[in-house]
C-alpha cells in the first residue's frame, strides 16, 4: 500500500492551538461584555431609584404617588384623536384638511430637435454623434447627442434606450447632465 502524503493545507498542531486560543479570546470578550452590561444595568437601576426618592422627597408625595414615580414609564405615548379631544360643536365647524400641491414637471410629448440651433460638431462615439447647440427658447448652450439607429426597421434600438437610461442615472461633475430627450420627424433624427 502506498503511503499518503500529508497535504500542506491540512490542520496541524499550530492550527489547533490557534483555534483554541481564538475560542478562549472570544469567550473572554463575551464575559467582559456581559459584565459591562450588568454594571450598566445596575447603575441605571440605582439612578432610577435615586430619582424616585428625590421625587418623593421633593414633591412630598403620598405612598400611592410614590409608587407611580417608581414604576417605569411606557415606551410610547398613546395618541388621542382630534375627535376625542375637541368639543363636538367645534369639530363640525372645521374644514377637512387640504392636500399640499407642489409644482412638478408635466408629462407631454418630447420637444422637437428644431428647437435647437446646431453650432458645431464635437465628436463621434460608439452610440452616436455629439454636437454643440443653442436652445432657441432659453439661449442656453447644450450638447445634443444624435443616437445611431442601426436597426431602424425593428423599432427603437435597445442600445439607444440603454444609452438614455445611463445618461439619466449619471451624476458626476465631469458628465453633462441629461436635461431632456428630443426627437425629429424621422426615427433617425
Automatic annotation (TrEMBL):
Key words, A-Z: ATP-binding, Kinase, Nucleotide-binding, Serine/threonine-protein kinase, Transferase
Molecular-function GO term, any one: cyclin-dependent protein serine/threonine kinase activity
Compositional bias ranges of the Polar residues kind: 46-65
EC supergroup of this enzyme: transferase
Region entry Disordered, spans: 1-99
Gene3D superfamilies from the UniProt entry: Phosphorylase Kinase, domain 1
Known catalytic reactions: L-seryl-[protein] + ATP = O-phospho-L-seryl-[protein] + ADP + H(+); L-threonyl-[protein] + ATP = O-phospho-L-threonyl-[protein] + ADP + H(+)
Domain named Protein kinase: residues: 116-189
GO terms for cellular component: nucleus
Biased composition (Basic and acidic residues): 20-45
EC numbers: 2.7.11.22
UniProt-listed InterPro entries: CDK (IPR050108), Kinase-like_dom_sf (IPR011009), Prot_kinase_dom (IPR000719)
UniProt similarity note: Belongs to the protein kinase superfamily. CMGC Ser/Thr protein kinase family. CDC2/CDKX subfamily.
Name recorded for this polypeptide: cyclin-dependent kinase
Organism, scientific name: Ramalina farinacea
Organism placement in taxonomy: Eukaryota, Fungi, Dikarya, Ascomycota, Pezizomycotina
Amino acid at each position: 500500500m502506498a503511503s499518503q502524503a500529508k497535504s500542506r493545507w491540512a490542520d496541524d498542531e499550530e492550527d489547533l492551538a490557534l483555534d483554541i486560543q481564538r475560542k478562549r479570546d472570544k469567550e473572554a470578550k463575551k464575559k467582559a461584555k456581559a459584565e459591562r452590561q450588568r454594571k450598566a444595568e445596575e447603575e441605571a437601576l440605582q439612578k432610577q431609584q435615586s430619582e424616585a426618592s428625590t421625587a418623593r422627597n421633593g414633591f412630598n408625595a403620598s405612598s400611592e404617588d410614590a409608587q407611580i414615580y417608581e414604576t417605569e414609564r411606557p415606551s410610547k405615548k398613546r395618541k388621542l384623536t382630534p375627535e376625542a379631544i375637541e368639543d363636538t360643536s367645534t369639530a363640525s365647524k372645521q374644514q377637512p384638511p387640504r392636500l399640499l400641491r407642489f409644482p412638478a414637471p408635466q408629462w407631454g410629448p418630447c420637444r422637437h430637435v428644431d428647437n435647437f440651433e446646431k453650432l458645431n460638431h464635437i465628436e463621434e462615439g460608439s452610440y452616436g454623434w455629439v454636437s454643440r447647440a443653442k436652445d432657441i427658447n432659453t439661449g442656453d448652450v447644450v450638447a445634443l447627442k444624435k443616437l445611431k439607429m442601426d436597426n431602424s426597421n425593428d423599432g427603437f434600438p435597445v442600445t439607444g434606450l440603454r444609452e438614455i437610461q445611463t445618461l439619466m442615472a449619471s451624476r458626476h461633475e465631469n458628465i453633462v447632465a441629461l436635461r431632456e430627450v428630443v426627437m425629429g420627424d424621422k426615427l433617425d433624427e
